[in-house]
Recover the amino acids of this structure.
């Protein structure tokens, strides 16, 4: 068991940066990785531009255990992820024999022309490992420590489900939250003192606009469940001591 | 009028990376900037970690006209954005006299203790320009070309509205979209030919899962309205020529 396995996520595509579409992948990927102890430490949204994709992948692949990408593996001219990954891992881009065979059979069976554009989707950097996924005929794959997935959420989700069991997992970070009716200005000093005493726990303070003004949600995260329990009790006592109320009910959150 | 004004966005905070909260700021900021010709070219989500924040800001501030940040300007121990911006712009972090005066008056009026934690929110890098915003007593500000805003969406939106008129604007990119019932494998080659003939237009192809399988949305983006009109006609003709149907109705999109 690895203490911590780290990951970065690269969302490739102009459509999120232009504001045309709301990203629907980051949260899902973060939660899925977190559930097996792979910690997402950075996410980037970058355009369909070869220089940017290559330099981003080169930088992140040395800094993190895994780099996940979404988007840009379809058959059209703006799908340039695979050629960029090939450059980043310093391998030629070539037809993957298994992917090619599967795709040819798939299209033949449906009497669909396996044309040049569709064959492009069978290209991977040399030595890549396919992610088998029934959700899409165009396979995702792993090249070095880069995991290449589709951008369409449903297909991405199938690929992620398929690939996660093949990756190394780490210790799982547990998270608790406590809602309070106090403003951050009152909580700040006692929170800072508690954070100093619990260095193994990350304490986050998230103000949320509610009808009455602001509430604050205190989130604690750690791989150490015992420390979380102790801190949870101390947080409740602290909130009461500074004149507030709390509850630990989990509510849906929308603010950042 | 500047031809193109570029921007990067840095979303600071552990809560998006952990998957606990869905980002609610990127799309709003991208659309708001796009409306005045400021083009968002990269977005990053990074944790509340000083080294990462400083190195990210230092890199992006040299690459783009503006760098926008959200999050980490509250009074608690995990709010470290301002100290990081100060390092990135090479200025001391100090009490901003106007912010301090406004905040002191605000809290005195409400008989609320203007304690040390709250005073922290009045600190900016030396020489920063405040963003006046009625939505929050803790001001956002501009330091060099870095625009520092709150993470809570409602407050961020007020700050963005206030700051945008003070920034340089560029030529506005216009966007059109055309829905088709064709798969990308059929569209790929003619699209590639059209893209080669319209280098001043970005053509994006976005498959969307629908009940019947996949539809494709063709998105064109350019500052050249005339070229967009011409291309739009050619795209319709092309879709018809390869046996498909199209419409140009704008529909809400959720996929990436």
């Amino acid at each position: 068991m690895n203490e911590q396995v780290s990951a970065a996520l690269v969302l490739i595509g102009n459509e999120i940066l232009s504001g045309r579409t709301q990203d629907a992948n980051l949260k899902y990927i973060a939660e899925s990785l977190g559930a097996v102890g792979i910690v997402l430490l950075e996410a980037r949204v970058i355009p369909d531009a070869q220089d940017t994709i290559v330099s981003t992948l080169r930088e992140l692949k040395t800094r993190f255990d895994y780099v996940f990408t979404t988007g840009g593996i379809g058959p059209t001219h703006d799908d340039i992820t695979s050629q960029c990954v090939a450059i980043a891992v310093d391998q030629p881009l070539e037809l993957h024999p298994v992917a090619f065979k599967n795709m040819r059979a798939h299209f033949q069976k449906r009497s669909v022309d396996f044309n040049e554009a569709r064959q492009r989707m069978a290209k991977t950097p040399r030595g890549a490992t396919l992610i088998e996924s029934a959700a899409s005929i165009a396979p995702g794959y792993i090249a070095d420590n880069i995991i290449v997935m589709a951008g369409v959420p449903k297909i991405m989700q199938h690929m992620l489900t398929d690939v996660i069991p093949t990756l190394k997992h780490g210790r799982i970070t547990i998270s608790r939250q406590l809602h309070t009716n106090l403003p951050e200005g009152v909580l700040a000093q006692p929170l800072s003192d508690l954070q100093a005493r619990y260095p193994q726990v990350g304490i986050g303070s998230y103000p949320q606009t509610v009808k009455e003004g602001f509430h604050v949600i205190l989130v604690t995260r750690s791989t150490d469940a015992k420390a979380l329990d102790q801190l949870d009790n101390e947080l409740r006592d602290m909130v009461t001591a500074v004149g507030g109320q709390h509850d630990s009910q989990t509510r849906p959150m929308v603010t950042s």
User: Anything to note?
Assistant: The domain at 174-247 of chain A is CATH 3.30.70.260 (Alpha-Beta Plaits). Confidence is low (pLDDT under 50) at residues 249-256 of chain A. The two ends of chain A are 32 Å apart (CA to CA).
